[in-house]
Each structure stands twice: as structure tokens, then as C-alpha cells.
Amino acid sequence: MKSNKSTILVVVLLFSMVFYSCSLFTSAEEIPTPNYIFTPSTTLLKIEPDSLPNAQTGVEYEVEIRVSDNVTPVSDAVISSGTLPAGLELVFVDHVDGAKISGVPEETGTFTFTVSVSCFSTMVIGQSAEKEYTIVVEDASSNMPTPLTFSGLPVSYNNISFNIPLELNASAIASASTEVEFPYINPSGGPMAEHVVFQFTNFPVSGDARIMVFKASEYAAYGESLQGVVTALLAGQDAAQPLPKALTQDFHAQAELVPFQNGHGVRYLTQGLTNFAPITNKEIFYYYQGITNDGAYFVAAIFPVNGSFLAADGNSPTPPDGIPFTNPTGSDFENYLNQISQKLNDTAAENYSPSLLLLDKLIASMQVTSP
Prior knowledge:
By secondary structure, the protein is an alpha+beta fold. It has helices at residues 4-27, 216-221, 224-234, 330-346, 356-364; strands at 39-40, 46-48, 55-56, 61-68, 74-82, 88-92, 98-103, 109-119, 124-125, 128-138, 153-157, 160-164, 171-177, 195-201, 210-215, 253-257, 263-270, 285-292, 297-304, 367-368. Residues 5-28 have low confidence and may be disordered.
């Protein structure tokens, strides 16, 4: 049996241990509780663009919704109210600060909706914003250009067609030819490459009236000046500056762009071989040079025209409202041509016989395609 002293010693030891342990816990420094409350960002999100472009039914549509001034990356973008036009959808791509509205609209109308954007919460309260947009979807068919229609006498040969306005009361006969065509009057290069010629009959003004269609490469190969014409047309030469001067042309007037159904070109009034001779109704003509949009075919047209202020020929008197011709030479002749050009330009296109507008209409109706 243990003694009382031993018992007392054990009790004292146990008390000391408990007291020491309590003093450790009460004297240790208290660990602070972390503050997990995120502070809001004071920067406002910016959503662009301010407005969206109109759309058309059946036509691909795509527009970007861009987000900026965000502190953290954008986490989502959704349509929070309203609806997109049928066929369009808002697509959000992760890791991209924005989204896209894309698709092919299927219905017309005005559609108002709200795009809501939110950002990730990383040490801050995630930013969010919304923007209201409107998309107007139009009927694509209502914006299509009205197909051109041409009336008159239809002419067609070897994949070349056009309409002769009934007011001209003329017709045309088509054939293949290797004859040398204007501007070459006295050729030295031999026959031209085979081409199509439409020779007009019953034309309202006496003289040679014809349309010629060449393969552009073959026409350009016949002479240097013709190469210059084809090059200018391929480059989109406009009417402000006439095409390179043909071999026998000293002046031009009434230069205008005249496109045809699958090509373009320039028309103007001119006269060949003036050689210090007056500009008269016998010699002046409407001249057209054009090329198909694919550059494959060259089109030329020559139509005689009359102006009421021009003399009938070199032996006839000049009308009172015309430009007198007094056998000028040198700079005096150049001055005469300048005055004639100005007079021709000042005369309305419809006041020529036949009207230059009728001839333009004929050219505009042309369609030239490969066999």
C-alpha cells in the first residue's frame, strides 16, 4: 500500500501540469480571422459598338461586341432580354473579351435586345454591364438592282447580241471578216484577225455604220496604238481623259462612259484624217471603244451623226451658228479644232441626229460572251 506522501506528490504534479498547459494557451497570441470580403471595382465596363448595322435576309451577317475597361477577364455574355432575329445568334468565346453576333437572318423587322456582360471575381467583385441594341433586318430582294431591259429590234450572232432602238428604224447584217478596221485607213500590217462585223442598213444618216467585235488580245497585237487602247480599257480608263489617240484622230468631243451588259467603254465624237480640213457632217462620227469585263473581247462601233451647226461637207457653207472655217494652218487650225470641240460639247446629246443617247442605248444593250 502506497504511502500518503506518494499520493500527495502525484496530485501536486498533475496540478502543475494542468496549470502550465492553461497558461500556454492563454498567453499565446490570438490568430486573426481572414477578411474574405472582396472590394468592388470602381471602373465601369465599356461595351462597343454603340449601335449595330442593318442586316438583310439571306445575307451573311457578323458583328463583334467588344468589352473594354475590365479588371478581370469576361466570363460570359448573354442576351438578357429581347430576342435576336431568327437565324442570328450571340456567341461568346471563353478567354476573349467580347462576343459575336453572326448568322444569316431569316426574317425582316426591327429587333431590340439587351446584351449583358459579366467578368470573373478574382480578388474583386466581378464587373458587369448591359447594353441595349437594335438590329433592323431588311428584305434583300428589295435592294436588288432592277434588271436592265432593252427594247427594240433584237440582233444576235455568234454569242453577240444587242437591240437596235426602234427610233433608228435600222437593221444590221452580221458576218465574219478579216478586213482592216478604223483607225487603220491604209494598212501596212496585212489583214486583221478574224472578227465579227455588224453592218447597219437603213441607218438614218448616210455613211458607214457598223459594230466590230474582236478577241482583245488579237486586236491589241495588230498595232501599238491599239495595244494602248486595250491597256487603257483594262485599267478602267474613264471619260475625263480620252483613250490613246487613234492613228487618224485629231480631236474628240462628247466623251462619256457607256457600260454595256458585261463590259465597259468610252464613246466620243471624232473625225478621221482632218488634215487641215473642216469638221463636217459628212465626216464626223460617233466612235465607241469598249472591252468585256473579263478582258476577253474588244468592241468598237462607228455611227455617222449630224450636228445642225456643221457644214454638210467640205464644199458647203457653214451654218450661221457654226464655227467658220477659213483654211487655217498651224496654231490657227488647232484653235479652230478647239472651238469646234467646245461647240460639240455644249450641244445637248439629244440634239444630234441621231440622238447620241439612242446610240448609247444601243451600245448598253450589248452582251458579248465566249462561244
